[in-house]
Fold this protein.
Amino acid sequence: MFDPFKDPDPTELQTFRFRLPCSSSHDTEALASARNGTTNNSNNNNNNNDDQSTSSTEIMEVVIRGYKTNADEVWKSTGLTLWKASHYLCQYQVEHAHTLFRGKRVLELGAGLGLNGILAWKIMCAQSLVAPDGTPDENATLDNCVCITDGDSDALVHLRQNIQRNRTENSNDHVRVSCHQLLWGASTSLSFLQHIAHNRKYHVILASDIIYAPSIIAPLWETIQTLLDRQGVFVMAFARRKVPVSIELVLKQAERFGFGYELAKEDMEEGIWVYTFKFA
């Protein structure tokens, strides 16, 4: 039936701009800003003047196409749009870019449209990947990779398109990016580890806005247990929603599966938290 009130184009193109120190900078603090819209004005990031000059920073863009949050399609798959917690995880990534990613294997869970995984890939591409003598950095060629995953087939279509949309002629060949389906749980994660990751675990796992029901908490931690390196870190942004899942329940399950945790970011007004988890 024809609906005269239906949005003729329920999708939107969003461009996010992030500012992080160049690889030569010793400052581990980064300024990040995310701007929505199909275009960016040159003044978008000029309000970050403090003591940090633009000459010591690098600005990168991530372009994402997905459905608007009020589109009918989002009711069928929550991974087809962007949610608030993803922006907080982006901020964390930029703030910790120089210690979080260099020479690391990175995995994103429940990526949806892929904003966080693509940002991680772009940060790693922007970082210096050569040794002081000018030869290729051995860690970069062996370990620098980003694997972006989701369990939903529809989301994977948009995810792959967004990865391709962000490829440029300057994309660093030493940083591999890939996209795969990953269903959470012990057996499916072990299969993923063997056949996709070639038995090499991940140093960093990222996730935001991924928990909507109590039944998926245990499979999530089984996945983290299986795929995270013993010295690695899982960074998760969690948003309070009108669902029967609280951050306290998630943290309690983390302890049951052998993980310790630290609060990295908190916005009580928005009900969003960023936690880091490591094997206890």
